[in-house]
Amino acid sequence: MTPTPSAPPAWLDRFRAEAPRLEAPPLLAPPAGAGRPAAVLILFGEGPGGPDVLLTERAATLTKHAGQPAFPGGRIDPGDDGPVGAALREAWEETGVLADGVQVLCELPELYLSRSEHRVTPVAAWWREPSEIAPGHPGEVATVARVPIAELADPAHRLVVRHPSGLRLGPAFRAGGMLVWGFTAMLLTEVLDLGGWSRPWDTERIEDLPPDVLDLAARG
Prior knowledge:
- The protein is of the alpha+beta class.
- It is built from 5 helices and 12 strands.
- A hairpin with a 4-residue loop joins strand 6 and strand 7.
- The termini are far apart.
């Protein structure tokens, strides 16, 4: 049976069933009482390349997280309606996503972004009525992209990144014209697993962070 325009598609069924049971991975579990509250929007849609997810790339001129791919999001302001309100507001400000066309599916457990000391609540949503998107803050957002889930799940696009010192920094993806690593890549890994979209990949494919990425990350 074909779903109505307002209903999330069947390919999201497994994610919707599994997401409420997710527990924060040990490396991302927030310490008790630590960090400032923030939220990000995991926005699923259906684009020309099939099921996709919305990602941004932060401007290289920022002092924090410069040049890094990310989900739309930021701190929860007093005027926000909690994580959902903050995630939708930030998505509008950063990418132009209209909240009226978004159907919230669920909130995932808080995760800890230690580098900036934030407790981040991921908000998963279905892009029921896609709107035009573009970088909303040129000084903050350099790129906005709808990245196909199939591209993220392709084993050829998955790797592990490490610091030149030899320290493994975690999973990464080459997708959407970006190297997605760090917190966003760890969260994407959980998302692919929850949705049943992951495919076996070579976890021993290890590459050093490129010098330009390393230089930007050194800012904080």
